Amino acid sequence: MSQDNFKELGPPADEIHLVGGALKRVVPLSIFPGMPQKRTGALEVELLDKPGDILKIQAGDIKTVIFFETIVLDKIEPLLKKTDRVQLQAIEELLVELLHFHESRRSHPPLAPNPWDKVHSSVFDKLHEVRRQRLLLFAQTAIDDTDWAQALHLAETWLPLDTSLRDAVRTLWVRYGTAKLKEENCSKVRAILNRLDEHFVQSSEAEPLRVAVRARAQMFANEAKNLPTAQAISKLEEALALWPRAPGWRDELAKLTKTYRVLYVAVQQLPENMSPATAWTNAEHQALDLLFRRLVQVRFDDAGGQAYVSDLLTELPRTEGIKQQLQIRRDAFWSSGDRLTSADVRHSGQLLETTALWRDLLEMPRFEGRPFMLTVNLKQGIIDPVAPLRFYVLPQKYRAKLLSRGDDPDFARQPLGSGPFQFVGRKPEGKRTVAVFQANPCFDRQGKYGNVREVRMMAWKDIHPDMPLPHLVLDMPPNSMSSLKKMGYADIRSAPSRRVYFLALNHRVPSLANQDLRRALAHAIGRDQILEDSFRGPAGAGQWQRALNGPFPVHSWAFCPPPRVPEDLYQPELAKSFAKKAGQQLGPLRLSLKFPADSPEVADACATIAGQVSKLFAQVEVNLGVDLKPLSSQQMRAALHQHDYELAYHHWDFPDDNFWLWPLFDLHADALRPGGSNFLGYDNDAKLQSLLRSALSHRQFTAVRENQQSIHAHLYERMPLIPLWQLPEYIAVHPSLSTPTLDPRQIFLNILDWKVNP
To answer: N or C: fewer beta carbons within 10 Å in the chain?
Structure first.
């Protein structure tokens, strides 16, 4: 290992200084000699000037051992005080060879602490110092493209190998950007700003570069306003190349190129509260995928089931037991322009830590100062360790303050997100009002700029033939399909849903603690007839319209087949038997049934339920009345959150195919409080609690399936809620909209691939 500048070093050798003053230069040792006072035998060495001559030196005769690495480091130290690029390069190359020498020559036991660590660290630290000096010297003295090309190459090569060089690399990049700014080469300044954004969360040193590039981009954008169309397009493209996240410019470019398209979507009612913690209506839940991102997304295929894809992660998590290592994308920004980092993910967990997801499955993420790296530990092994990572990520700060509540009302009405669109408010449009979502300029579409630059949601009632028709009609009632077809909607799709509808029972009401009453109600309802009379859909859609006998979708893997649970819960004679027992225990009784008033089909179904129940109880001379109470969606939300109901027509949305019921029966104080997940208030059922907890602990599918089916069977016996039915999701698609396969459960998941035709 020799360099022209360091021939005086000679061949590698360790020096052994003896007590009497003698010096022995020996072939570098392979095994660490240890401290002399700890040796009990002789040290066998090979003399450098007598190859093959082995000398045995007694431990007591050795004063000290100086290793070759230390000798080299001592000799190059004076050379670092007065250096130029050539000499620094030679020293760096020497240190690289010295490090290779050390790693190939010095050995240590594989399972014991490495006694050479201190020697290795001294070489590595010096190499780091020299590389840092080289980068800083380039930053100070580079004068032409050749110099900068060499410097940038070194920075790109070394940064992945040694993160301790980050500050030096950042300084070099900023100096390079400054040099290019003086040359008015803003495209190269933009390129170096991209590199800074990729590797650093914030670089205050680069702010002058950002200001200058933004100003140049703004100048181009201003010039475009007074130019003919072709020239204006060119200027805007230049402006966007320099400042791609500028608000409004890409929209203006799309308008000039006549590719700006507005997507109209008809919903039952306009969204109001669009925080993941407050979304209640279907439109509000669907809007979340426009506004927010998750760590991972799940895509569904009716044939293959669910599959996970990365969203905010660079790749699906690497799972080591219960430990998951996560790498956050570096190109994710909030619509405010701020970076999305690991701190936002952790803060999302803190905002949601009272939910069953964080309390029972996930530990709070740790990022230990790493802005784009996270470690998330599961609290126990589960069959699907990726599923808990599907939560929406919320910002740590909102309007320059800490977001302290996920259900903050201001945030819910005007959310700050990182998704492909941002909510800009409600606007009048002729005779109707629309909720407007515009393309988020800070969202990296990875080339998928599409032509949907704006989404406008409108209410069903505002569909008029003399105004732009919606391209999509969501959550459409079955009885409106014929009229929609007359308006040109030839493509009407239906798909299965994981949503299950039921009568929620408030177990805080004393009479509903009576199991006989609950079972009488369950067996008194003729579900198939109600589905036929109230929810009749178009031909072919009935395959997804099913009466339920429990909490799980029919024929799902968690569904318990007959005879363990009867296929049809409607059993009038059994209902009469339970009704007699309940009447003897409770006497005359009136119950209120609250339901959403905005659906005529639901109102009709609830009226039929009330009539069927009252009639059956009357047949056994039990006085039970059911009072119907229609409420708006927000009133329904308040009633369930405040536990202000007796019976309620409601539903449960399973977020994925794990069919997790625990939140609905969680007995933790947070779940039982107003607004908590357990609005039923069902308790005093130790067996159910045991089964629900067991569902989390099993990792083999056969055991999990048996456990879920046991939960189904147990709920049939106790009937803490009254299963009703599944209803299909209906979507009407206008011919002017071209899309890939749509998933009604996550309608906007692939909106970047949609095309609105003129």
So the answer is: C
Q: What is the mean pLDDT of each run of 10 residues along the chain (758 residues)?
A: 53 90 90 58 84 83 91 89 86 93 87 88 95 94 94 94 91 96 94 91 90 96 95 96 93 92 94 94 95 90 72 86 88 93 93 80 84 88 85 95 94 96 94 94 76 93 82 83 82 82 97 96 96 74 80 92 95 96 93 93 96 96 95 94 97 87 92 93 93 81 91 97 91 90 84 90
Nearest to 352 by CA among 390, 398, 311, 314: 390
Distance of alpha carbon 365 from alpha carbon 386, whole angstroms: 14
User: Comparing C-alpha atoms, which of 186, 735, 267, 694 is closest to residue 462?
Assistant: 267
Closest by CA to 208, choosing from 232, 235, 245, 177, is 177
Query: Could you give the CA distance from residue 504 to residue 736 in angstroms, rounded to a whole number?
Result: 41
Looking at this protein, which amino acid is placed at residue 108? H
Report the distance separating Cα 394 and Cα 171, nearest Å. Answer: 32
Which residue do the tokens 């927000």 mark? Answer: 634
Q: How is 327-354 classified by DSSP, letter by letter?
A: EB-SS-B-TTSPBP-HHHHHHHHHHTTT
CA–CA distance from 350 to each of 79, 380, 404 (Å)? Answer: 53, 19, 9
pTM beyond 0.90, yes or no: no
Distance set, CA 125 to CA 67, 156, 486 (Å): 16, 19, 77
Give the closest residue to 569 by CA, choosing from 518, 526, 600, 536.
526
Domains and CATH numbers, the chain: 4-110 (2.30.30.100), 142-258 (no CATH), 293-413 (3.90.76.10), 421-496+730-756 (no CATH), 499-727 (3.10.105.10)
Closest alpha carbon to 207 in 230, 187, 178: 178
d(CA 140, CA 158): 19
